Amino acid sequence: MSKPGIAARSPDSIKGLWESYSTEVVPPDAGPIQRTECQRAFYGGCACFLGLLMDVLDGGLEPTAADLALMDRLASELRDFAANTTNAKPPPVQRERAVSSGDLSKAIPEAHYLEVPERVDVFSWTPEPPGTPDAKSTQVHLHCGSPPGPVFVMRFKGPRTLDQIIAALIKHRIDVWPDLPTEATI
Length: 186
Hints:
By secondary structure, the chain is mainly alpha-helical.
């Protein structure tokens, strides 16, 4: 007996299956890149599955015992995957390896390291021209550095990423300076 969901709807096209999958599985706040990549993976999986069936099933109008056994194995594999995915626990969080000054350049060889100055500025940003009444801020900007030297700007367009950065900064601040008070000082 199938559970309610994508498989129970039996759309008659891959597009219909994608639309059901997209509605039920892809997060509603997914951006266009995530949505496109999910759709490519979905269609790629369908193409692989169709190729498997075309290559392995016996010819003829009636399914053979080998065809039915294959379909049973594939259905079982998909059910196992769904169960493991649904009930999966996230992997344990591993503590990042501390990077010593001797191997700092080895941490990310392609990176350009910027020494963060003593002053960091954070702004709410709006696309509206300066002076626009009731302009709504849409981003948070973090500025490190000032001209004529290098300036590094991070633009946060959504709260999730900003919250992740704040949580990571607090965690690593406590890791590096455990004896300092944890309350914010401004």
